[in-house]
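agent> step 3/5: call structure_predict on target 'Dioxygenase' (Paenibacillus ihbetae).
agent> reason: downstream docking stage needs a structural representation; sequence fetched in step 2, passing through unchanged.
tool.input:
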Amino acid sequence: MTLPALFIAHGSPMMALEDNEYTRFLARLGRELPKPRGIAVFSAHWDDPDQRLTDDAEHGTMHDFYGFPEEMYQITYPANGSAELTNQIMQRFEAGNLHAKPVTGRGLDHGAWVILRKMYPDADIPVVALSIDSKRSPSEQYSIGAMLSDLREDGILIIGSGGLVHNLRMVHPSDEPDDWAVQFDEWIAEQLETWNLHSLFAYDKKAPHAREAVPSYGTEHLVPLFYAMGAADNGRKAERLFQSYQYGSLSLNCWSFQ
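tool.output (status=ok):
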């Protein structure tokens, strides 16, 4: 059973409480995919210069946000970890000469649990969370994801959780997407559909409105895309499964790579 790798926008933490077209899509996606044996998720909210991954029997739920309704802080997502999957990932990192360190007691940040709770509400699939490093080059991020590509053939769902357009200084109340955000998303889409790594890796110089879409202080939300793409380097096929916007420019999209 070969699963795709996915890039999933996790939007605002409030998505945990929302019922809208995007959350219903995520629920449907979880039902339609073959049930994974395990999930490995690279989250934008675990940015570390060293490669880290969780090694817990059970995960706590991080409420790594502030200023939200009290109900948000009562939500839990009690997924188990997987020592077997952690070891499999470590073996592949070691084979790729990437120094990595398992950590315990961290829990799942909202970049991981918000989307997983929509897709797999029963929390019955083992999860291993992985850090990203926004200071690495896109080609390095891609290469790290590629180290895990064969796990997809063993029933492991690999997810990059972030956001292609995620500039909180540019959001505003609007039901219509900002033109600049759409232009950036469509440029990214064109490169993904042709697997144009040369242009993608230079998105900051080539993409329209790259500075607004991926601000210098917020690159960590884009880079899970490269980890997820790398995990499908052995197939190199991209399909956009969903696209919408909140708050004018907050891009809610899902890409499948096989």
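agent> step 4/5: record observation. The CA atoms of residues 103 and 168 lie 30 Å apart.
agent> proceeding.
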